Amino acid sequence: MNKFFKKFFCLFLVLLTIVPFSPQEVKAYDAPGLNAYYISVGKADCILLQQGALYSLVDTGDEAYLGEVLNFLRRKGVTTLEYLIITHLDPDHCGNVQTLCEEFTVKNLVYRSLPTTGYNNLNAGYQARYDSITSAAALNKITSCYDGQSLTFNGATIKFFNNPVSYLANSSYDSVALTTRVNLDSLIFQAIYQNTKFMFLADSGTASNDYVSNKYAESVLKSDVLKVAHHGMSANNTATLISKIDAKIAINSSSSAFAIEPLTVTRLTTAYSSVKIYETFKVSSYVATASQGLPYTGILVMSDGTNVTSYGVYDSGTSSCNKTAFVK
User: Fold this and answer.
1) Structural domain that includes position 168
2) Domain presence at residue 161
3) What letters, b where the CB count within 10 A reaches 16 and e where it falls short, cover 139-158?
4) What is the distance between the alpha carbons of residues 83 and 227, in angstroms, rounded to a whole number?
5) Residue 268 clears pLDDT 90, i.e. is over it
6) Is residue 14 a part of any domain in this protein?
7) In the predicted model, is pLDDT for residue 222 greater than 90?
8) Which tens digit of pLDDT belongs to each residue from 39-83?
């Protein structure tokens, strides 16, 4: 019997040397820098930020993709969110806030607080979503999330740029469509880690973009990575702001029916000629042929504090996920 086990153990050691091992992003995986996972949830936003062993989530996707969101977070071993940032009231950005606050410990729920005038200007659907956010089971609520405010996220900083005055409460915009005013109220912010910056525009529009680009110089807004506004629509990705952001990597969180518009691509390439543009629904087309066909779940951009690198993320086994380098 002892000889049998000795032979088995020797065979096991031999196999370890000849079988290639691809390290999984297993539970309790620590990010030495800042990782941003742009989860593939159709025409919606849901982005997981990781710094060290801590996690934060930007938007929740809509209800139709709740399963994909839960699968991704559980495979990453997420149990606690330092921040759950809700950028605005569209259902494809905040549709799962109640469920996520029940499934995970949310230390801080971050959202724009509306004055009575702004709330009253909402229709019943938007009011219901706002009430869902304000009543969610988070340990703390943070509504000071506007120009001049910032949050500490472990070794990173989240810095806000959006107008502190709600466009929903501004009578000058009373004639503007409600959906446009809701988008204008989007939180605009950077996640900053050492010498790298990730910019998030949510669904911001012309007026909110102009507020930021008119106030801040390129030296402040310039970012390595950009989550483009409103699923790639050119009306929401204004030339001046895109030029000042000057991103090396641009990510459009969307579906095949809402691919990034050509004018948005032109503005991105005019700002930075070698920009890499990715769309969350086309992840597999950016990797080597040998890796295609895997169950891709999103795009990962990793920062080591100096450089940023992009990967495709896919399910691995029953409980973890893995990454593969982009060739584009």
Assistant:
1) 28-325
2) yes
3) eeebeebbbebebebbebeb
4) 18
5) yes
6) no
7) yes
8) 999 999 999 999 999 999 999 999 999 999 999 999 999 999 999
Percent of the chain with pLDDT over 70: 91
Best CA proximity match to 130, nearest among 112, 145, 117, 104: 112
Handedness of CA 299, 265, 198, 149 (dihedral sign): negative
Give the strand pairing for 196-200 and 189-193.
Answer: antiparallel
- The C-alpha atoms of residue 286 and residue 269 are separated, in whole angstroms, by 18
CATH code, domain carrying 114: 3.60.15.10
DSSP code of residue 101:
H
Backbone torsion region of residue 305, taken as left when φ is above 0, otherwise alpha when ψ lies between -120 and 50, otherwise beta: left
* Structural domain contains residue 143: yes
* Number of domains within the chain: 1
In a domain, 235, yes or no: yes
At 73, which amino acid appears?
A: L
Q: What is the pTM of this model?
A: 0.91
